[in-house]
């Protein structure tokens, strides 16, 4: 029988970026908060021996155990879904800080176009430009409304970047907190080639600190050492902004925050119109607890947020046949595959050194920054060259036609290890009527609860986008003084392998219509006013960017909404 605990004002499910930001903001305001994290606790001391590629990058030390909980996948809703048994397409973080610990730190605000994509598309091209089955919609918030919350995240985490607003993006009311990262020879080649073509490259804004920085909360952190161990690793210097070294210490110092690790939330308790608390299991002991609360905040990863709502029967599940319901709607991913490799026979680069967000990029072909009138796709891609640190176990580059095994393969990988620069496009993912998340009717987790099922495939929109962006990457690579270049412009059927991106979005989307969205623009649930859901699950589509900046901005806005709700109650407008 579950043990019922004393009621608290706020309980937060998941202690990554979203949970950490909201916990810090609420506790600073004197509000008592309980944070539930299903994984273990951690701090920078746990990263002192983190430069182990086999343990962390290849064997996924910081990731969720798929033998206990995974997702099932299918391309169409008429197929039988099968579980993801080993990691491939994306990585699910586990433990305190979540995916905010193992991210690269690449920081991009979404475009003004993203938040009003339906209205702006119809205004410029007409309704016929939107293909049948594409379910783009305005988000119920504008860039200008969200802009102050981007600033909050940037000042808290010490985002580095150029002093002026990057070209082709939304206006910034305040410069980035620290100076840009250093430019490598590869970045200079990319920027010179792009500039000659009339494009507008800039150094990627980065959550890897470029100098010692003290944020508005008094948290001081050291500068990046360019060691190349960011993605899939924690940062032992604390130079990469993550929740464990930024917002969680602030919450813990407030005296108003209680963190409970190894606490796996299994359901949201509710009476049909309001939540009353959550049920969770202490994983080491198997004991079950009920935590009553005035406000429940879902701050987990995309799949966690959606799955908890569906398992708790809170909100109406999406039905692709009738296009009714909202929970699980508009799942979107990231459209990669457009790239060009530049090979150098007479020059080597130190590609083992780098940082997760070290690089340069441009947005001339992102969003609606270019004319789509004669193109068979909407939106676009951020085109970039990055130097994130290419480690020897997983990086084995060879040109097309080279042997794939044996002595000649080894010889080719050694020769090319520091001779290949890649210009890539990270494309936006538009939602489709038949791309959604629901509960799998067959497969269950270690606790006997249904797994989340993903239904997704690439569409003609995505293939056309990749072909177009690949040509642009080749134009730039052609100007980078390489010996030869190889363009990649084919996008096949989506598969759960190999690794592509951990930028999963949608499922609890925001909007202004309760029939087709789950939350309003304060991330307050339409169907239960004391439930706030925050994260990339709120995105009605995915942009040509990494999602963390917008997730962080939403978290600050949600925290503001929760404070208002605790004072006044009722729906927030």
TrEMBL record:
Flavoprotein among keywords: yes
Protein name: GMC family oxidoreductase
Family per similarity comment: Belongs to the GMC oxidoreductase family.
Residue stretches making up the Glucose-methanol-choline oxidoreductase C-terminal domain: 441-555
Lineage: Bacteria, Bacillati, Bacillota, Bacilli, Bacillales
UniProt keyword Flavoprotein, yes or no: yes
Keywords in alphabetical order: FAD, Flavoprotein, Oxidoreductase
């Amino acid at each position: 029988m579950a043990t019922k605990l004393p009621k608290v004002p706020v309980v937060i499910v998941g202690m990554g970026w979203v949970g950490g930001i909201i916990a810090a903001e609420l506790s600073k305001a004197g509000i008592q908060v309980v944070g539930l994290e299903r994984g273990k606790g951690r701090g920078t001391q746990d990263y002192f021996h983190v430069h182990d590629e086999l343990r962390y990058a290849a064997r996924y030390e910081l990731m969720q155990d798929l033998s206990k909980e995974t997702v099932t996948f299918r391309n169409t809703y008429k197929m039988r879904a099968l579980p993801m048994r080993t990691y491939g397409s994306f990585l699910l973080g586990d433990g305190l800080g979540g995916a905010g610990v193992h991210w690269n730190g690449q920081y991009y605000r979404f475009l003004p176009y993203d938040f009003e994509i339906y209205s702006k598309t119809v205004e410029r091209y007409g309704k016929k430009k939107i293909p049948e089955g594409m379910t783009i919609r305005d988000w119920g918030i504008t860039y200008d409304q969200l802009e102050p919350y981007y600033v909050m995240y940037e000042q808290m985490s010490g985002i580095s970047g150029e002093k002026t607003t990057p070209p082709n993006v939304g206006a910034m009311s305040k410069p980035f907190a620290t100076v840009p990262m250093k430019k490598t020879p590869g970045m200079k080649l990319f920027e010179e080639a792009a500039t000659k073509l009339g494009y507008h490259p800039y150094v990627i804004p980065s959550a890897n600190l470029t100098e010692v920085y003290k944020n508005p909360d008094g948290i001081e952190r050291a500068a990046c050492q360019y060691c190349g161990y960011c993605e899939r690793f924690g940062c032992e210097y604390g130079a990469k902004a993550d929740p464990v070294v930024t917002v969680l210490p602030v919450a813990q110092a407030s005296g108003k925050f209680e963190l409970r690790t190894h606490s796996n939330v299994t359901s949201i308790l509710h009476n049909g119109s309001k939540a009353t608390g959550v049920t969770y299991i202490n994983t080491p002991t198997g004991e079950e607890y009920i935590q009553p609360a005035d406000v429940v905040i879902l701050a987990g990863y995309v799949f966690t947020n959606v799955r908890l709502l569906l398992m708790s029967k809170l909100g109406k599940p999406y039905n692709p046949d009738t296009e009714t319901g909202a929970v699980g709607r508009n799942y979107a991913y990231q459209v990669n595959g457009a790239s060009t490799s530049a090979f150098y026979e007479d020059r080597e680069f130190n590609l083992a050194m780098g940082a997760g967000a070290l690089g340069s990029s441009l947005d001339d072909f992102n969003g609606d920054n270019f004319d789509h009138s004669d193109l068979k796709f909407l939106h676009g891609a951020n085109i970039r060259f990055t130097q994130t640190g290419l480690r020897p176990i997983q990086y084995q580059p060879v040109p097309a036609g080279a042997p794939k095994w044996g002595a000649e393969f080894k010889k080719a990988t050694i020769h090319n290890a520091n001779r290949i620069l890649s210009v890539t496009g990270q494309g936006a993912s538009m939602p489709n009527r038949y791309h959604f998340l629901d509960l799998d009717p067959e497969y269950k987790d270690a606790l006997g609860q249904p797994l989340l099922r993903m239904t997704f495939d690439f569409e003609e929109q995505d293939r056309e986008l990749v072909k177009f962006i690949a040509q642009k990457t080749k134009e730039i690579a052609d100007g980078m003084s390489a010996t030869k270049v190889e363009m990649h412009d084919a996008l096949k059927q989506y598969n759960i392998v190999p690794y592509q991106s951990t930028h999963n979005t949608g499922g609890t989307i925001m909007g202004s219509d309760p029939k087709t969205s789950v939350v309003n623009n304060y991330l307050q649930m339409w169907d239960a006013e004391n439930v706030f859901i925050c994260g990339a699950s709120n995105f009605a589509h995915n942009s040509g960017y990494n999602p963390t900046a917008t997730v962080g901005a939403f978290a600050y806005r949600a925290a503001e909404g929760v404070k208002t709700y605790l004072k006044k109650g009722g729906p927030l407008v």
